[in-house]
């Protein structure tokens, strides 16, 4: 598996300090943006996608690309970290991920250089040949989803305390996430916000917040 090159290079600091992060490793369209905004407003420095060492080092929470593919390498680099696997009803996810992949494929065919190399690598790993597919059937998408889920289950089988599974539609999902992260609820709501509604898929880009960490 090819991962971000700097992940495989140990530094002096790595040997002296055991750093920890919070990684959201579920696939795109599972509520990653909503959870990132919730944690951002709860006081964490958050990167929704990260493509270089500076972004990873600055952020306390990292989600989406490349985490959903590179979580094993990230665990090796940050062994005391916590990982969050978000779940949503399969029917809702299917509709949302299909919309995203169709949009990405259209851009890919128009200009394959439009996307970061790590975006292309991770999406092709999770959704094989998505750039050349004419359609995304429920069977294909669910196969990709379940393959990723099985891989996550296997990886965390001997370290279950470092993985939180949470249904984003569950009452109190936000509180459950904050408790797992080690932060008191305080003034935060115990419910996650609902963003990226309908056809909107880039809500994170509109967020302005002092704790927001840019991807690169």
UniProtKB/TrEMBL annotation:
It comes from the Bacteria. This is Sulfotransferase family protein. PANTHER family: P-LOOP CONTAINING NUCLEOSIDE TRIPHOSPHATE HYDROLASE PROTEIN (PTHR36978:SF4), P-LOOP CONTAINING NUCLEOTIDE TRIPHOSPHATE HYDROLASE (PTHR36978). It comes from Saccharophagus degradans (strain 2-40 / ATCC 43961 / DSM 17024). InterPro entries: P-loop_NTPase (IPR027417), Sulfotransfer_4 (IPR040632).
């Amino acid at each position: 598996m090819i991962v971000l090159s700097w992940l495989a290079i140990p530094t002096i600091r790595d040997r002296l300090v055991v750093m920890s992060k919070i990684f959201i490793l579920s696939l795109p369209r599972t509520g990653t943006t909503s959870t990132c905004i919730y944690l951002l407003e709860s006081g964490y420095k958050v990167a929704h996608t990260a493509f270089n060492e500076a972004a990873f080092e600055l952020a306390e929470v990292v989600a989406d690309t490349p985490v959903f593919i590179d979580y094993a390498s990230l665990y090796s680099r940050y062994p005391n970290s916590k990982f969050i696997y978000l779940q949503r009803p399969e029917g809702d996810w299917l509709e949302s991920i299909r919309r995203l992949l169709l949009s990405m494929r259209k851009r890919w065919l128009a200009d394959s250089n439009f996307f970061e190399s790590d975006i292309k690598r991770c999406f092709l790993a999770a959704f094989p040949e998505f750039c050349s597919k004419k359609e995304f059937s429920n069977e294909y998408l669910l196969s990709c989803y379940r393959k990723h889920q099985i891989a996550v289950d296997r990886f965390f089988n001997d370290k279950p305390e470092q993985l939180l599974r949470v249904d984003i539609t569950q009452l109190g999902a936000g509180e459950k996430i904050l408790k797992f992260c080690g932060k008191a609820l305080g003034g935060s709501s115990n419910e996650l916000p609902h963003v990226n509604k309908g056809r909107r898929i880039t809500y994170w880009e509109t967020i302005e917040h002092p704790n927001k960490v840019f991807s690169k």
